[in-house]
Amino acid sequence: MAGFRDGMEGWTRVRGAGRGTGLALMILAAAGLVPAAAQTRGAAGAAKCRFAAPETATVRAVADARTLVLEDGREVRLAGLDNMPHGAQGAAVRDLAARLAGRTVVLRRLGEGRDRYGRLLAHVFLEENGRQDWLQEEIVAAGHGRVARIGDPACAAALYHRELAARAAKLGLWADPYYLIAQAEDVSGILERRGRFAIVEGKVVSVRESGGTIYVNFGRRWSEDFTVTIAKRHERAFAAAGTAPNGLSGRRVRVRGWVEERGGPWIDATRPEQIEPMERR
Question: Average pLDDT of the chain?
Answer without folding.
Answer: 81
